[in-house]
User: Fold this.
Amino acid sequence: MIADRVKQIGMSPTLRVAALAGELKRQGHDVLDLSAGQPDFPTPESVKQAGVQAIEDNQTRYTANSGMQELREAITQRIRRDHDLHYEASQILVSPGAKASLYFACMTLIDPGDEVIVPSPYWVTYPEQVRLAGGKPVFVPCRGEDGFRLDPDRLQAAITGKTRVLILNDPSNPTGASYSEEQLRPLAELCERHDLWIVADEIYSRLLYDGRRFVSVATLGEAIRERTVMINGMSKAWSMTGWRVGWTAAAQAVIDGMAKLQSHSTSNVTTISQFASVEALNNCDAEIARRVDAFQQRRNCIVERLRGIDGVRCTSPEGAFYVLPDCSERLVGLKGVRDGIELSEFLLERAGVAVVPGEAFGAADHLRLSYAVSVDRIDEGLDRIERALDQG
Ligand code: PMP
Ligand code: GLU
Assistant:
């Protein structure tokens, strides 16, 4: 018999669609993949070289469970440069991807029956990790008209005596919404007043457009910082999805709890990846700035193309590399297509374009498209989508 724990969750829909697109490509189908949440850029050259050097230097043994001291120090310096916050190296835990960081955070902060606020649309993995920890995700809708940001009154209304955690993903996957200091402050004050943890998933913090400056919720005062579990990682800004490096900065008791879990599950992150990450954190700012410019152009292109389709409404994302167009009006009159799930199937079959249905993120009748691909690919994908819809 399989345990109830896994029966209650599904396979990650983002990974599933990406795998399906890959499988169709292997079979020789012409599939244009706008589903995958990973940049098409290679890992920066000097970072690859640092990995190769680590292998040649025989740096292939276990490291400290929580991560090499040198890497944890590089992370504290990065946090100081980016947010002007001071953490000790002992307050950093390096885990195999931010997904693992989030999982260990959920397992450390949530007791069975606890409620966890998940602003919706949400990244697919949050509710499942909350459930795995025995908690109950409480979804708070964020409307397109509000820029998909969490409204303080709605947050207040969702808080009960059982609420323990708010998961705040800024910039957001799938909406691209980001928060200014003024927008964060009332949310942080509510968390303080109701004694909630803030799990701040900041994995897209470096990917903000139009000159926006990222503000971490942890910078809003010492009391807020104490209750913030700050999570980030190498995957997105540094194009290192396959290297599997994420990290957490938090109060010592939280880090100690998460480190215990890690010590009995994954142990340390791959040693070679840790060496590469030190190089990435210290020496790649100019390269990342160039890539942010490229992402901004891609965003402009995809938003303009989507807005050009009759019946599609599209908010312009402020960060990350996803758009979440509302296709509800476009569904009307499309034969045999009733929702976002069927629309994504239709587009895969008829246009050869892979996208993720909004339903996976709690956004019915929407689609999530990733623009972590070139402008040419975006144009071709949107040409195909337009043709298929016109014929549909
Ligand atoms: N958080 C969000 C919002 C994400 O989109 C992702 C993408 N996979 C992650 C966390 C985890 O990233 P990784 O495990 O590759 O560090
Ligand atoms: N975070 C990415 C996405 O949302 C990668 C897939 C995943 O890890 O779920 O597409």
In short: Residues 285-307 form the longest helix (23 residues). The radius of gyration is 21 Å. The chain is about 45% helix and 15% strand. Residues 37, 97-99, 123, 169, 173, 201, 203, 233, 235, 241, 246 surround 4'-deoxy-4'-aminopyridoxal-5'-phosphate (ligand 1) (CB under 6 Å).
